[in-house]
Every structure is written in C-alpha cells, then in structure tokens.
Amino acid sequence: MAATYALPRRRHTAQVKVFLVEDSAMLRQRLLAVLASVPGAVSCGHAAGAAEAIAAIQAAKPDVVVLDIQLESGNGFDVLRAVSGSTAVYVLTNFANEAYRRKAEGLGARGFFDKSTEVERLRQALMQASA
After folding, report:
1. Average per-residue pLDDT in the chain?
2. What was the pLDDT predicted at 14?
3. Which terminal Cβ of the chain has fewer Cβ within 10 Å, N or C?
4. CATH superfamily assigned to domain 16-130
5. What b-and-e string marks burial along 36-73, b requiring 16 or more CB atoms within 10 Å of the CB?
6. pTM for this predicted structure
7. Are 47 and 73 in contact (CB under 8 A)?
8. Where are the domains of the chain?
C-alpha cells in the first residue's frame, strides 16, 4: 500500500513554495533537481543552520519545508520545534532511525524520509502537495 501524507493545500497561488534546510551544497543541488521535476513546486529559499533557517522560514512563509536533522549549527529538531505549526515539514536525513522518526513525528513532522533510499518518496509527497 502506498503511503499517503497529510499535505497542505496550496494558498492563493499556482505554486507550492518549498524551503530547503540542508547544510550540504551538493545535496541542496540534488533537492533542487527533485523540485524541478515536480510541477508547481518552487524553491523559496534555503538555509544551512538552524537559526538562519527559522528566521528565513518565518519570513518566506513556505507551504513545505524539507528539513535535514544534522546542520552546520543547531539541528533540525530546533527548526521543527519552531515552525511545525505554521508549515508542513518533511524530514530528509541520513539518520533515519526509529528514535529520530518518533521524535520528528512527535514534534509535528508530516513525513520522515531516508536520504539514501527515500528521495523518490519525498518527491511523491511533493507531487501530492502540488496537485
């Protein structure tokens, strides 16, 4: 059975604004390529550290945040605590263990994906958001 995720409905625009929180420039580029393959999804910014991400997300007001756990400064859980009530957050991490999954879900993450094996599942969730 395919997983379904509770996704935000688009606001009054034709696009779903996605904010990336990822400290690796190489992985940010990979995620931008994933976004480019999703009709209606557009990047509205990115950050590499927690404090920078929180401020930028609050300013950009994205529909979706794609969030790594390990960041240059702070961690993804700090970001999730600060923004999960105002936007849909999907965690994409190399640390996809059950304890992190439970913690992320407890803090309001709408999805939790392993970077090494589940990028396509994240893309599918973004496709649902832009439908």
Report:
1. 90
2. 63
3. N
4. Response regulator (3.40.50.2300)
5. eebeebbbbbbbbbbebbbebbeebebbbbbbbbebee
6. 0.88
7. no
8. 16-130
